[in-house]
Amino acid sequence: MTDPSSGSVRLPQSLEHARIPNLPPSAFYMADFISEEEEKLILEKIERAPKARWRQLTHRRLQTWPSDLVRGDTLLDTTPLPDWLKDPVIPRLLSIPVSSDSDTEAQSSSHIFAASPHKQPNHVLINEYPPETGIMPHKDGGAYHPVVCTVSLGSSLCLNLYKAKEDGGIDPDPVWRILQEPRSLLITTQDLYTEYLHGIEPIAVDADLSEETVANWSLLRSPSDFAEGKNSRETRISLTYRDVLKVSKLGGLLNRRP
Fold first, then answer.
1. What is one term from the GO cellular component aspect held by the record (predicted)?
2. Which domains does the chain have, with CATH numbers?
């Protein structure tokens, strides 16, 4: 379905229509989740954020909204997400039913965060990936409800999914590759959250791109953009929406005894 108020936005009738084929049935991709104008406005808000909001890592930087987690797994209930991170992303996430059930009431209660503690995301991580920048394979851990919604801005790149070995190591070859285009939404949950690791190679060009090597090829906005089998990266910004399980009032947290 198309959102007529949002230009080029195209939302599926349900997540069933956005499921990535050949992956476990817990990954979904929408190429036109936000419009070009919305992408521009969000990028402007990110750029205008106070310098103190940025945390500089070795090769990239990030912002955490509304705040970092304390004790590694708890969000302080102090300030909500700013409006520019809520609208239009969160209302759209909650508007898409998981299934195509004809029962309107059932649809309204079956969105991707329906089983999470707060029924919607309460935390956003903004990562900036210049070309030749990536992130090591990792899992997101137990601080979050096992649903990750990632909006990509600015440029395309491949996300790699890895399987851990029985000895605890990681197979260096990805099991699957997902190509994330600007303005797209990727949702991973269930087994893809708990059993697999995800990472981004620190390269300037994603190569060997084709229908055989990219899991979401059939769902891309413009497969023809990658007809030569490669994607030259520019700076890409990702917005990662999750629901932190533990939320605490500041006073209650400080009054806890170790």
1. nucleus
2. 20-254 (2.60.120.590)
